[in-house]
Amino acid sequence: MNHLLPRFRWSPFLTMLVGLAIPVHQPSAVGADDPPDIGTRRELFVEDGLIDRLDGGVRLQMHHPVPREVVLVHDAPWEGTGSGYHSVFQDGDIYRMYYKAWHLDAQQGKLNTGRHPLFCCYAESKDGIHWEKPELDLYEFEGSKKNNIVAAPAMFASVHADPGHPAVFKDDNPNAPADARYKAIFRSSKPNGLLPFKSPDGIHWSPMTDKPILSGLGAFDSQNLAFWDPQLGKYRAYWRIFTAGVVNDKVWKPAGIRAIRTATSDDLLTWSKPQDLTYADSPPEQLYTNQIKPYSRAPHVLIGFPARYIDRGWSASMKQLPEAEHRKLRASSTQRYGTAVTDGLLMASRDGVRFKRWNEAFLRPGPERPGTWHYGHQYIGWHLVETQSGTPGAPNELSLYATESYWTGKGSHLRRYTLRLDGFVSASGDAKGGSLLTKPLSFSGDHLELNFATSAAGTVRVEILKADGSQIAGYTADDCDPLFGDTTSRVVSWQGQSDLSSLAGEAVRVRFTLHDADVFAYRFGETPNE
Hints:
Oligomer: single chain
CATH architecture of the largest domain: 5 Propeller
CATH superfamily of the largest domain: Glycosyl hydrolase domain, family 43
Low-confidence stretches: 1-25, 245-254
Largest sheet: 7 strands, mixed
Structural class: mainly beta
Number of domains: 2
Distance between the termini: 38 Å
Mean pLDDT: 91
Number of strands: 32
CATH topology of the largest domain: Tachylectin-2, Chain A
Shape: globular
Strand content: 35-45%
Number of helices: 4
Radius of gyration: 25 Å
């Protein structure tokens, strides 16, 4: 009712009558003495670093990507059914993609992977939706250079590079020289380790060293990656290891779990002492890839999309999954090739070591159909890009890409999925209503913007509180003009006024009161000078 009457002043008694009463508790004394300064940066709910408490019918709700079209089929003679490990990023007016090209030929009692060497291939797009494989004229395959092979083992034989395990990025380091604007991390075939490469144009590559980095510190049999972290002012690397797991800060003793290790560097050549990732409340699980990178709209938050690997063994359900006969054929070589399945997870961190990992699947295998529910399915590419919505007039959305049709046919497929901007996790209120209260924080700027969605009857109200939880005159929930709609950016107002400049730099809390509504992100913005 209140959202239809913006000037109506609701009382606590009336709130109780309409069934929207929110329990009021004293906030916990967390961080009030030294609150983090979030400035004007965007804050998400993908991890709980700034959340003090959830009350009533509010919970953190993970949202799932929406499947779209297949954007690439890796069916060229130099590609194949094992193609994957995609790196995707926007570079000015084009989108770039790099990936492993490999073919898996399952035969009775064996798996043949020797049709051709593992290559790194390249594709590009003007919109992130329609992709092309350009003829690069770099490497001769079966008598022709008309292919999109951008790196092959024979091109870098002196350093024993394996470009079939690629991770490619545009270097955001402001001090990166012109001949090293792009970087790639390839696996070293011998000795064990990783090899950083540089390029002036993302096409022509040269090694940065003749000796592998991080040698002996991992298994590296996956997509191992590095990137420039603008918040840290250093490079970060994340790579595959086999180790004991860590659960609730306690070591999980059985060894041999696929896990993730990280280190930092000033130059991609000399690295800090490595650390194994830890998780606050996640069970030990096999994480095949990691796909960690700063989220472009909130680069202080590192978001990863690890592939979860699980061997379910033979069972009645396993035998009912798609392509049963080919599954048996794969298993005749090594059982897990037929009985392991994979999906995509979501995790986030502020410090790059301790992550909030969502234990439910972010990207499930989905409806049973040919090319799905197998080992290698739903490996999410590294990383997200922003693309135009398919709905005319709607705001841009996030696109991510994941593999399917691994093992079978002429070549694996890459499907695009979409998510609303910042739409990983929301503070979600049910019909009875509830609230989310932040820890004390300070901000700069002069207004508050929300990315939110409600039902036709739903509302969002925002209250700015002192660090001790007491109200600030003019910024209470009663003063807040109720918000409803579905938008990625709207300014909050209180009795028609949105100016928060008088509170900038002070320790405050924010309480979001939600009724049949979701808030995905918030940001204290600064009005540009005219």
